[in-house]
Amino acid sequence: MKNIFKLLTFTLFVSNLVAKEAEIDHMALATLMIQDENYQRAKISLDEVDTTKKDFDFGYYYTLRGMVSMKLLDYKNAIVEFESAIENGQTDKSIYLYLIEANYKLKDYQKTVEAIEKAGDVAKERSQLFSIKVDSLWKLKREGEAISTLTEAFQRFPKEFNFLKQKFFYLVSLMLYQSAIDVANEFIEKSEPNGETLIAMASALQKSGEYRRAILLLEEAQLRFRENPKISALLSHLYLKIEKFYPSANLMERASYFDIKHKADSSEMYRRSGAYPQALYVNSQILDRQEKLKQRLSIYLESGDFERAIAMEDSMSRSGLLEESEDIRYALAYALYMSGDFIGCEKHLQKLQRGDLFVKGIELRKNIEKCRADRWSCPQ
Asked: Domain segments of the chain: what residues?
């Protein structure tokens, strides 16, 4: 009797459990699980949904499945699910936002652009989607559409200055330099650009060989950021590219006021421009002793001040330059030759071992012999 009672009790328990199971709304449960970020459990619950019910909402069902797949990073399956949702009556345009993300993640740029266009105004309300569309069009080699989209994006989001900046770099890459400069000027006028951004824009023009346009852009930048040594330094290099040595030197000296590492470059530019007094003045401020001495020797040699070059011998010897650099030793030997001290010149020539300098030393010895034979052939 007791066993029969236990059997009846167990049967009743199972019957109640089955009844409760039949009452569970797995789709509603999956929705809650998605909200609680329990995506794997939501997937299991969706697998248990009875899709044979009358008037079953397949559009909503596949939308939930697509959302779960997105969260589980299964983008391929997410696309299949979302497309099934659309085929089964899902009319909410927001579903295309998921399709945009999934296709973009899979680098299917054509499908990404198509999804953005199908999303309509929903996509146009989001600046990030304009960026995605531009990038997709660019990678599809549809450059003109990418540029047009950037124009539209900035019109819709006039505070998103990155659209102008991106348009500038795209125009430079397309070698549309005047249009790029126009966009750069608009960018400067409407935004509050930092120095680094303007340097990057000028650098892009420089890499394209558009030195004069880059100079115009940096001149504007320098008016805004007078204390930015990077702007002055880059502008100096650009002037050097077009062989404007003195402006280059002056700008590099300005940069050195804020960053002392530019002193040597400034002195070098003054030397190349023939402004030897300024070159020596800036050279005197260089902290690295060996660098200062090497550069000063070059200035004296180029300006023909051989006596001062010779007077540096003790300093160069104490600093180790003469032992470290055969170029310096040959330069000193040349200065001694030009001043008529042939014995001193020979002393240094004997210590040269490097092939090219050894050959130059032979030429100097020949010139010394000519000078001894005919004083009119002497350097002075």
From this structure: 336-380
Sign for the CA dihedral angle at 266, 268, 271, 276 comes to positive
Cβ atoms 222, 235 nearer than 8 A: yes
How far is residue 377's CA from residue 69's CA, in Å, rounded to a whole number? 90
Predicted structure pTM score: 0.72
- Where b means 16+ CB within 10 Å and e means fewer, 17-34 reads eeeeeeeeebbebbbebb
> Distances in Å between the alpha carbon of 349 and those of 9, 293, 310, 315, 323?
115, 20, 15, 19, 13
By residue count, the chain amounts to: 380
Contacts of 150 (CB under 8 A, 6+ apart): 130, 134, 163, 164, 166, 167, 170
Is 64 within 8 Å of 45 (Cβ atoms)?
no
- Residue 97 CA to residue 232 CA, distance in Å, equals 46
**pLDDT tens, 71-121?**
888 899 889 988 888 888 888 888 899 999 999 999 999 999 999 999 988
Looking at residue 24, its pLDDT comes to: 61
